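input
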Amino acid sequence: MDGARLHTRNSSPFGAAGWTPSEITHLPLIGIRPEMLAWWYQKLPVSSIDIHGIRYTLYHVFHPSEHGRIRVTEPANDGTPGMGVGALVERDEWFGPFDSKGAGRITQLSAAGMTVVPEVAGLQFGEIQHIFEATPTGSQYRVVSVIGVEWPLIGRVVNALIRHKMYPEVMIKEWERHQIEEVGMLQHFLPALYNSEPKGDLYSLPPSNGRPAAACSRTSGPWRTAWLARWRAPAG
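output
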């Protein structure tokens, strides 16, 4: 969890109406301004980075050992490539031993933060708020999540199923740990990436910036083969 720790967390197995809440306040991000965070998320599904001659998606660099694929299945309202307001984004990833595949609707993305609404077959299941606040040295990044529904009559039953079958407490803890690790990675490369000159949607970093290369080397060679096999495996 280098670069970011769970500074404060206020999470419990369930909240009002049986919702599953989670809150993380990351350690301050030095040298990373809020608009850089918004830029990063907009580029995340559509851009790649060259590291020592190997092309990796930005999503892979974000968490080399637990990110599989991310894709925009419905474009943003204004047609902006990548993440934008109105876009539906699908992702395949892992939280430790837990597979996680899902989609989220982007309802807000700016220097103030990003809001993602989990969506299944057009039905919405809660809200995940990424909050970016400017500080004298960079940014403060918080994530406030609530997973569940507000449906009358059957809402508590559905939330109980979500809580026990889809997002049990042990998985929520792994999800929080995963978020801490990925945000911690940004400290090592985002400022340089933001100021680099891409070739289309392909970015590169100066050789001196070795942290992403060291992390991604875990998925080169045998590690890369195992990683590819994992995200290509059919859902069980």
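quick obs: The radius of gyration is 18 Å.
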